[in-house]
Amino acid sequence: MVVISLGGSIVYGDMIDFNYISAFRKFLEEKSKNTKIFLVVGGGKSARDYISIASKLGMDEFSQDRIGIMASRINASLFIGNYSYPKVAESVEEAVIASKNYPVVLMGGTEPGHTTDAVSLLIAERVGEKRVINMTSVGGVYDKDPRKYKDAEIIRRMSYRDAQEMFLNRDMNAGLNLPFDLISIKIAERSKIEICIIGKSIEELKKAMLDGECQGTVIGITND
Ligand SMILES: Nc1ncnc2c1ncn2[C@@H]1O[C@H](COP(=O)(O)OP(=O)(O)OP(=O)(O)O)[C@@H](O)[C@H]1O
Ligand SMILES: [Mg+2]
Fold first, then answer.
1. What average pLDDT does the segment 50-68 reach?
2. What is the pLDDT of residues 104-137, one digit of tens each?
3. In testing the pocket of ligand 1, which one of 136, 168, 201, 218 has its CB within 8 Å of the most ligand atoms?
4. What's the mean pLDDT in 201-220?
5. In the list 19, 72, 141, 194, which could disulfide-bond 108, CB 3.0-4.6 Å?
6. Closest by CA position to 163, among listed 187, 180, 178
7. Side-chain half-sphere CA neighbours of 83 within 13 A
């Protein structure tokens, strides 16, 4: 079994990435022959565009989150296939029930107040999986924003505490643009789930699944 959180900006960066989605679907079709897969897809640029208009229209944060959730579900629906539960699961419970009969279950967001990354951790918590693979557009967690600073350095291992401290001073608004959110880290910590943050490459994903090799950042229990 594997729980994957796929960053929305990978699927929908400047526009919908047909080639990537198509390659990922092939991967799902192949892998689903011998592995159960929960795939949670984020909102990406489309979510952020909708959220920014909703914000300008004066809508509250809850309503903005709702809109982001809808956008993430549209992104997730592009991964539905013969190999999967034929709709985007709308709750963790629905995903768990669906997984009894289908090897692949797709999800976007569920409820306002947390990200799609947090949804992936809640699934892992519910099914007793001790690791979540988080695919991002930047390949890991850095000491500063790698899109803004060329000299940003990747952090290979972080404790839950390190991760919490890193994000503590950031605002948590709809469409949050960080490699992880605080709620996800808290869920990971309480159930001792390791988070492996990698890039968008399907090869990297296969490595993370097969040999547990995490090429980006591991957030989890550290000995130091
Ligand atoms: N210290 C940091 N390390 C890594 N990324 C950072 C950091 N600070 C800010 N960022 C930003 O966080 C974002 C993380 O990218 P990611 O691919 O996870 O977004 P996403 O999951 O696609 O978003 P969503 O699914 O919500 O649309 C990047 O845009 C990156 O520039
Ligand atoms: Mg992400």
1. 98
2. 999 999 999 999 999 999 999 999 999 999 999 9
3. 136
4. 95
5. 72
6. 180
7. 21
pTM above 0.85, yes or no: yes
Indicate if the pLDDT at residue 144 is higher than 60: yes
CB 80 within 8 A of CB 87: yes
Residue 212 sits in a domain whose CATH number is 3.40.1160.10
In this prediction, residue 166 carries a pLDDT of 82
CA of 109 to the centre of ligand 1 (A): 17
Range(s) of the domain holding residue 120: 2-220
Please name the residues in contact with 178: beta carbons below 8 A apart, sequence gap of 6 or more: 167, 170
Please tell me the total count of domains within the chain. Answer: 1
CA distance readout (Å), 97 to 41, 93, 123, 217: 19, 6, 12, 31
Residue nearest to atom 9 of ligand 1 (CA): 145
